[in-house]
Amino acid sequence: MAIVRWFIGVGLAAALLWTVDLFVGWRSIWESLGSAPLSAVLQCGGLFTLSHLLRAWRIHFFKAASLGVGFALTLKLSLLHQSFNNLLPMRLGEASYPLLMRRYADISLVDATMDLIWLRLLDLLVMAGIAILFLLGFVNGSLAMLVAALFVLTGCFLLAMMAGKDTWQTESYESMGFIGSGLRTFSQRGPSSGASVWLLFAATVLAWSLKILALLLFAEVTSGLHWLTVWGGIIAGEASSLLPVHGIAGAGTYEAAFVAGAYVGGESLEQMLLTAVNLHIFIVSSTCLLTVFVLPLRGDGSQQEKMS
Questions:
Q1: What is the chain's alpha carbon radius of gyration, rounded to the nearest angstrom?
Q2: Residue 23, pLDDT score
Q3: Which among 203, 225, 270, 290 is most buried, taking Cβ atoms within 10 Å?
């Protein structure tokens, strides 16, 4: 099955190359990228970098600091994880997080996986809220803001309750058997307090806002699409990472999802495809470039000895 998915992934990437060449032309892609003012590209890159710094801070505040891992090494871990996520199909890149945490912090794969689930739930809350805001915004802007706020705040409140370990009785877990055991482990690996959950949630909102703003600005200087059209495409493109099958480095699946999400804007298919490719190139190249910059970073003290 894995081999079949890899063949599908290669096929999707090949289909993207052919489709772009047929409907847009790769020369148009390079011309649109080359026409972007350097100052605007640097601005987008700066916002994207701040987003990654916040993602690393989340990990550091949540677990890494208490495990003796410095921020520099946490930043390296976070960017390696994001690069693997961007490059590997079928969400295989997620497996890099527990492996890297075991290497850098010497914790079990199960514990590191539970930590990642906590972070991913916060990501899912924020992205779902943004999607609700976008979709209901076509009906009623005030209603969209109200429903989105209620959804994300309720979800964050439940996670904050879960993080309050004293509110969950061991007996109630034991009565649920295997599921209860998993819930107990999940609760124990959560933030130290409900306040920590809300702080992590705020950092997650800001990180995603910076990333989306960077992509919106980059699309503005490389294409002529309306920002609402691009917003819909970005939401769908990011959601495509949840699909079980991907092209190589997400090629094909990201673009197809972007065009589907941007289609509500009713603009040119060629422009939507060109923008999707431009943004995908920006995301992958920026993340990999930042990862190259942090590769020399090492830990301090015992962590550096472990990495030697």
A1: 21
A2: 66
A3: 225
Tally of domains within the chain: 1
CA 116 to chain centroid, in Å, comes to 12
Structure tokens belonging to residue 92: 């295989």
Closest C-alpha among 261, 287, 255, 257 to residue 274: 255
The beta strand positions in 232-292, using DSSP E, are: none
Give pTM, 2 decimals.
0.86
User: Distance between CA 231 and CA 208 in Å, rounded?
Assistant: 12
Which amino acid belongs to residue 297?
L
What is the distance between the alpha carbons of residues 87 and 123, in angstroms, rounded to a whole number? 19
Query: Nearest 5 degrees, angle CA 73-CA 77-CA 82?
Result: 145
As a whole number of angstroms, the distance between CA 285 and CA 239 comes to 19
Work out the number of other CB atoms within 10 angstroms of the CB of residue 79: 24
Which pLDDT tens digit goes with each residue over 184-219? 777 888 888 889 999 999 999 999 999 999 999 999
Contact in structure between 56 and 75 (CB atoms under 8 Å): yes
CA distance linking residue 90 with residue 241, whole number of Å = 8
Domain that holds residue 163: 2-71+79-307
